[in-house]
C-alpha cells in the first residue's frame, strides 16, 4: 500500500467496500458537532464511489463555510497547512474535498496498519 497521498492512490483503496465505510465514518466523526448532517455510505459501485463521495463532501464543506465552521473542521481533519492556504487563495471546493477525503483515508489506513 502506498502512502495515500494522491487521488489515484485513493482510488485503489476505494475498491475495498469496508475501507470506504471506515473513511466515511471518519469524516462524519470529524464533522460531528459542526454540522447536523452526515454522509451516508454510497451504494457501493467501484466505478464511481469516490466521485460520489467528493460531490457529497463538497456540499458539506460549502455548508460549513456558510456557518463559519469550515476552518474548525479543517483543523479537526488535520489537513496540511499548505493545502488549506491553497484553498483560501482559490476557493476550489472540489480540490479541498479531495484533500479532505485523502486525509480521512490516511487516518483509516494508519489505524488499520498499527492495529
Provide a quick synopsis of the model.
This protein is mainly α and 115 residues long. The protein has 6 helices and no strands.
Keywords:
115 residues, mainly alpha, 6 helices, 0% strand
What would you say this structure looks like, in words?
The structure is a single chain. This protein is mostly helical and about 120 residues long. The chain has six helices and no strands. It has helices spanning about 5-15, 15-30, 50-65, 70-75, 80-90, 95-115. The two termini are about 15 Å apart.
Number of domains: 1
Average of the residue pLDDT scores: 88
Number of E-state strands: 0
User: What is the count of helical runs?
Assistant: 6
What proportion strand?
Answer: under 5%
Helix/strand-derived class? mainly alpha
- Evaluate the radius of gyration: 13 Å
Give the biggest sheet.
Answer: none
How many angstroms does the end-to-end distance come to? 16 Å
Shape, per Cα inertia axes: globular
List the topology elements:
Layout lengths: L6 H7 L3 H15 L17 H18 L3 H8 L3 H10 L2 H21 L2
Helix pairs in contact: 2-6, 3-6
